[in-house]
Design brief:
The chain contains 12 helices and 10 strands. With 310 residues, the chain is α/β, with parallel strands linked by helices. An 8-stranded mixed sheet has the order 1-2-4-3-5-6-9-10, sandwiched between helices. It has a two-stranded antiparallel ribbon with strand order 7-8. A hairpin with a 2-residue loop joins strand 7 and strand 8. The N and C termini lie far apart (61 Å).
């Protein structure tokens, strides 16, 4: 009989650590040792968590995380960009340390971007740049389509925007959701962490960091911080039109091994961008490029930021 059980390296990459923190290289330890400025602001009745690095008055850079993630996904990236930029990140409502909502929509998420940019002082040196990973590209593109000149550029990172041929074969979400489980111990909860979509991870020290910050202590144990009902309460407009509607320059970053953004999808998205838009395909990176190739991703962002000088 063929063994069809999930590969534990994919479905439970931290389980074998039994709650211990894995060793990490010095560059990572140095980055996460840089304490960000923390803040909370209110947008349409919900408290939104913000993190910021670097001096006010420098060119601004807004980092926008993906679905089910949180602002802490940028904690090992932002300090290397903050040497020359004022860098900020937020946790979307329904995720991280931000409040959950009764309903969700992209205009409200875009309002969160604007409010966080203002609160963290990103526009002091002119129009800032946005970087949106995965789901984060949708609020980013919504915001980029609102007003010309507000943003200097926007970087779309491995977005869930699929070619027409692939969209035909994809299953539609049916709107149902299951509430989070409660795990009796932090160790048990960490053992259940996995990436979505599932992928290999050679940087377990990063996975461990983001997993710990994805959890909260609740009555009876530990549970995930993101709202599992969000997708049952959110409708996305046409994704191609969102790209075409952007009023600032765009760039595309993809993971060469991504199972979400496959070559045909990347070619399709590239065709939606204005002619001459930069494209970076990171070798050995899967969908979560900042986890798979963090230093290469930093180098790619530095190169793209140089294309749009402040």
């Amino acid at each position: 009989m063929t063994d069809t059980s999930p590969d534990p390296n994919l479905s439970a990459p931290l389980a074998h650590l039994e709650g211990d923190t894995p060793p990490a290289p010095s560059w990572f330890r140095d980055a996460v040792a840089v304490a960000p400025e923390t803040g909370r602001l209110t947008v349409k009745g919900a408290a939104i968590e913000t993190l910021a690095w670097g001096e006010r008055g420098r060119p601004g850079l807004m980092l926008l995380h993906g679905n089910g993630a949180h602002a802490g996904w940028w904690r090992f990236i932002a300090p290397y960009l903050a040497e020359h930029y004022r860098v900020a990140a937020l946790s979307w409502s329904g995720m991280g340390g931000s409040d959950w909502r009764e309903t969700y929509d992209l205009d409200t998420f875009a309002d969160e971007v604007e409010a966080a940019a203002e609160a963290t002082g990103l526009s002091a040196a002119g129009a800032p740049v946005m970087v949106g990973h995965s789901f984060g590209c949708f609020p980013m593109l919504t915001e980029a389509g609102r007003e010309a000149g507000r943003w200097r550029g926007a970087v779309i990172v491995d977005p869930p925007i699929f070619s027409p041929e692939r969209r035909t074969g994809r299953r539609r979400e049916d709107g149902r959701f299951a509430p989070h489980r409660i795990y009796p111990t932090l160790q048990a909860a960490l053992a259940r962490f996995r990436f979505a979509p599932m992928q290999p991870c050679d940087t377990l020290y990063i996975a461990d960091l983001i997993a710990r910050e994805s959890l909260r202590e609740v009555n009876g144990g530990w549970s995930w911080r993101f709202d599992p009902s969000m997708w049952a309460r959110l409708t996305l407009p046409d994704r191609a039109e969102m790209v075409r509607g952007a009023l600032c320059p765009l760039a595309l970053v993809t993971g060469a091994r991504s199972d979400l953004m496959r070559p045909a999808d990347a070619a399709y998205v590239q065709g939606l961008l204005p002619p001459g838009s930069p494209r970076v395909n990171l070798p050995e990176a899967y969908h979560h490029v900042m986890v798979d190739q963090p230093l290469a991703f930093v180098a790619a962002l530095r190169a793209l930021l140089a294309v749009w000088p402040s």
